[in-house]
Amino acid sequence: MSLKKSIILIIIILLIDQVSKIYIKTNFMLHDSVEVFSWFKIYFIENEGMAWGTRISDFVSFISDRTAKTFLTLFRIVAIFGIGYWLYSATRKKSSRILTIAIALIFAGALGNIIDSVFYGVFFNDSYNQVATFLPKDGGYDSFLHGKVVDMLYFPLYKGYLPEWIPKYGGQFFTFFEPVFNIADMAISTGFVMLIVFNKRAFSKKD
């Protein structure tokens, strides 16, 4: 796939991602939800920048969420340039279509979440007990680089208590699938899955 087509794909994903996030942010209060089907809900949460609704402190406990958030955002900004160069190189070498699509998806998803992390703290006020507004007069809920990523897609495919015979977790309430995510997360995950499942087709021996 050519660089031009890759850029078009990236723009489409970014538009869908950002339009959905801005709509949720400006129409829902935090933790508001709408049931679309019994197994799919629109459920508004925000996270500090990790994928699939996770928090930085779930993985790094020895530094504050705020400090880790800054480093994570800066790392992602650097990484996006690396992914962009990888995409540019792949299109120039006329690599496989699967490879260029996968890289474009990963790039679009990463950039989509970076936009939240870098700008949303400045562009919106908070969503606690209120619907946020865009560019509020009193300023945003946080500073540059400290925005929270908007998540809204929730697929609780199964909810119930696990059988007692299951070791350690028997009798506990269990939800599958519990993470809440967004379009950008879907793009990143799809790109990685494509690289893993279609590895031989994505990478030639020369590559």
Automatic annotation (TrEMBL):
Its EC number is 3.4.23.36. Belongs to the peptidase A8 family. The chain crosses the membrane at residues 70-88, 100-123, 180-198. It is a multi-pass membrane protein. Keywords: Aspartyl protease, Cell membrane, Hydrolase, Membrane, Protease, Transmembrane, Transmembrane helix. It is found in: Cell membrane. It is an enzyme of class 3 (hydrolase). InterPro entries: Peptidase_A8. The keyword tRNA processing does not apply. Pathway: Protein modification; lipoprotein biosynthesis (signal peptide cleavage). Its main location: membrane. This protein specifically catalyzes the removal of signal peptides from prolipoproteins. The keyword Acetylation does not apply. This is Lipoprotein signal peptidase. GO terms for biological process: proteolysis. GO terms for molecular function: aspartic-type endopeptidase activity. The lineage of its organism: Bacteria, Pseudomonadati, Bacteroidota, Flavobacteriia, Flavobacteriales.
